[in-house]
Each structure stands twice: as C-alpha cells, then as structure tokens.
Amino acid sequence: MKHNYLFLLLLGLTLSSCNLINPDEDVPAYIEVKEFSLSTDPVIQGSSSSGITDAWIYVDGQLLGAFELPCRVPVLSSGNREVLIGAGIKINGLSATRAPYPFYRFYSATADLIPGESVSFSPEIAYFDSLIFPFISNFDDLSGNRFEASGGSDTLIGLTSNPAEVFEGAGSLKASLLRDSGAVEFQMVDALELPKQGTLVYLEFDYKCSHAFGVGLRSFYATSGTRTTSLINVFPSETWNKMYVNLTRAVSEQVNAVNYRIFFQSLKEPGSGPLNLYIDNVKIVY
Known about the structure:
Layout: H1 2-21, E1 29-33, E2 37-39, E3 54-59, E4 62-68, E5 71-75, E6 79-90, E7 98-100, E8 107-113, E9 118-121, E10 124-126, E11 135-137, E12 147-149, E13 156-160, E14 172-177, E15 182-188, E16 202-209, E17 213-221, E18 225-234, E19 237-246, H2 248-253, E20 259-268, E21 275-285
Parallel strand pairs: 1-9, 2-10
Antiparallel strand pairs: 1-5, 3-4, 3-6, 6-7, 6-8, 11-21, 12-15, 13-14, 14-21, 15-20, 16-19, 16-21, 17-18, 17-20
C-alpha cells in the first residue's frame, strides 16, 4: 500500500512537471499577403509598374515585422482588428535597406482574426495625392526622346518598339555599344530644379541590361560649372526589374546647385560581349 502511494505521488509530480514544461499554447490566427497592385493616374503619375518586395504589417498599431512576399504571418490577437500593410521596397536595390516606400499609401482594413484560420490580402495601393512628378518618360512617343548621349560616350541611343526589348507600352529606351570596348553614357536632355533641405526625392525606373551600369546625378552651378555624384551601381539582369533610387542626400548636399540631370553610364571590357541597356518608365517624384 505504501509503495502504491509513493507511485501515485511520483506520477502526480511527473504530470505536473510536464504541464510546466509544455504549457498550453495559444493558437494563432494568420495574415496572408499575396501581392500588391499599384494604381496610378498615367498622365500625372506615370506607369503603375512597381517593385514591391515586402509587406510591413501592423495590427492595432503594433508592428509585427517586415515579411518577404508572399507571406503567411502568425498573429496572437483575435477578433476584429485594424490591419495596416505597407509596401516595402529595396532602396537603391540593396537588401540591407528594405523599408516601406514613403510615397505609397498604406493599405488599411479591418479583419476578423480567428485562431487557426487565415485572412488573405492582395493590397491595392496608390501614391499620395500631394506628390509632384517633375519628370516622367515612358518612351511610348517614339518620335521623341528625353535622353541624349553625353560625355565621351560611344553610345548608340534611341527608342525601340521591338516587343522583346520593350517593358510595357509602345517603346523603351535602348542604349548599345557596337565596339569591342568603350563606354555607354546618356543623360536627361533637360535639367530639373529639385527641392533641397532634406526633402525626400526619388528616381524610379524599370531596366534590363547585359552589363553592370551606374546611375549618377549632375548638379549645375551658375559660377562653378558641373559636379558629378555617383548614386548606385546596378548588376546585369536578363529580365526586367524595378529600381527605386533615393536622391534626397545627393540633391540636398548640393546646396547652391541651380538644377540637376540624371545620367546612366556603363563600361564595356574587351571581349565581354554586346552591351545593351534598356530603360523604361523613368520618373522623378518628391
């Protein structure tokens, strides 16, 4: 009888300790984000192409985190909750600089979160209404080009309507180098005035390229000429990609500059094969 009592006591302690080690866990609900779609006014805001890579998810004002698309995220909250989803990008094409794009509105919805079940979103977003787009070129008007060869370039630059070379619409810009080696360089024909004092300014464009290329900013001064700033370097890509370039610091540091031009540049090493660079949907926004 004594042995039975000890056995029952040990069994009770064991079961109790198991409950302490493995307590009952809350069952989460799930938020799924598949993909974003951007809506634009094509006349004022240009193309609706985007390069959104991440979803920044908030529930009742609390950040859950940034998640690469598509994603399925556990949430311990339940019931009707306010969900905000921001469109995340890679600023300057760098994975280390992921952030919500400051010019896109957050998607907002009320969701009934039920433990064990999923709520799915395909957020539809838009630019903020107050933004200014001083430069938009989608290259669909094949009779004109707002970029020109510059510097010591060996560039053949023009517009292409070849479907294999066009991202969307009627045309894209194509810059080629026929020589075995040399440089490709082209810039905006018209210079722009841009805001300084830390005002957010971004360059957007779609691209496809056989060789690496750089993007830079030329700042023009009334008395001292031109200053050139290198902004980013872009790796080759056989498929079309979207780039968001933060111009804010480069523009604001040139305090006394009168205006600015964006330029693209690529160097071709001997024997590296044909150099072709395709650009579409260039826009500057602030």
